[in-house]
Design goal:
The protein is α/β, with parallel strands linked by helices and 150 residues long. It is built from seven helices and six strands; from the N terminus they run αβαβααββαβααβ. It is 31% helix and 15% strand. The two termini are 32 Å apart.
Length: 150
């Protein structure tokens, strides 16, 4: 939505899915995530929901230890420009989580974040599959440093 606005688009780009991040170190089985997706789909069926437990995502990123929180997990995403989340706090006010800050988002800049063992591969795959530059041509997408293995 931010990139649409900065490009002057009047028609919003619809997301391919809506990611819902949870942190539950007790219910770590994938079936729990699927159960929550089913409940969300029953409520808003026109959206493709993807629930991901950040207490277990370290197995995907190749890190040895679980992350301490949702924000900790987000700080290790392969590109921090997309590591922006919103939630209702204890006072029912919207709170933003953006471990990499918001500067790159508003500057239309995508950079790799090589914080995990799999980050380079994940970044390469995302940059080739997302089609962001086609949709938002003013984006600057930085490549990986030369010293990162291909």
């Amino acid at each position: 939505m931010v990139w649409d606005d900065l490009h002057g688009f009047t028609e919003p780009t619809l997301p391919s899915d809506v990611d819902v991040l949870i942190y539950d170190s007790v219910r770590t089985d994938r079936s729990y995530e699927r159960e929550l997706e089913g409940r969300l789909s029953a409520t808003v069926p026109e959206v493709r929901w993807e629930v991901v437990n950040q207490a277990t995502i370290h197995t995907y990123t190749g890190d040895a230890e679980p992350y301490a929180s949702i924000e900790d997990a987000m700080s290790r995403w392969a590109e921090l420009v997309t590591a922006v989340g919103a939630h209702l706090d204890a006072n029912d006010e919207v709170s933003i989580i953006a471990p990499g800050g918001l500067e790159d988002l508003f500057a239309l800049r995508v950079r790799p974040n090589l914080a995990t063992p799999t980050a380079a591969d994940v970044y390469r795959e995302r940059m080739s599959s997302k089609g962001w530059k086609d949709r938002w041509p003013r984006l600057t997408i930085e490549g990986l440093p030369d010293d990162v293995e291909a």
